[in-house]
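Quick log. Single chain, no ligands specified.
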Amino acid sequence: MPVKSERRADLACYGLLAVITAILHRQVLKSFWLFDDLQILKFVSDHQPWEYFFVPTVWREFSAANLTPWIGLSFDIDFALFAFRPGWFYFHTLVSLWILSIMFCALLRLWISRAFALMGGLLFIASAPAAAAGQLLMVRHYIEGAVFALIALFLFVKAVRRDAFVVSVLAAAAYLLAMSAKELYVPLVLIVLFLPEKTWMTRLRHAAPLIAASCVYVIWRFWMLGTPVGGYANTLFPHQLSAAFFPGVIKNVIESVNMLSGD
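-> predicted structure:
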């Protein structure tokens, strides 16, 4: 298929995902503030982004257990644009969900046909985790963290296939943003080593920027919270992962690729 036709087909898939997202989740646009929403708004209205990203005493006013400053920045952008109009905050969340479904589809497209990749994107946007996350502004950082994580995976695969180290650096930047959204994306650096691409050594070489990014994150977290790892009640990453939908997505991707390749 010609390149232009390929692009049109991809755009059609992404447009369909937008339509399905709107049909399934549009009712949340009428929702109001829930749970921690106003607490987050109060926090970001009192502080600047550079403060809750890099000043420990400021961030610990919000959380002494987790380092997730991206949620502050995400709310800060909405507050600057829309003030106290929750409908637009929910619209932002739905756009993030749509972009996540696009990235899920694009990642699958690296290994399987467009039709099956689109089915994966549609299944995701119609899933219970997507429906639950779309109704809760306070967990938007899970969604946007997953977007960055899938971008990192997509770029990593491209880097390995093209042997382009610069693309690996871009993947590491996306990975760092994912970690700033939620700690559960930290183990991504281990996942990339087991993707069915090229040789082990090639994957390890291109994973070097991601490994460096994880080291930067550990130092940053130690500076901000006083511990290099942890979470609620000082639990470690494997426990946090058990409650997250993203690792399940990655597991399904890897299993699907292995099944289709006959391994």
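The chain has a mean pLDDT of 87.
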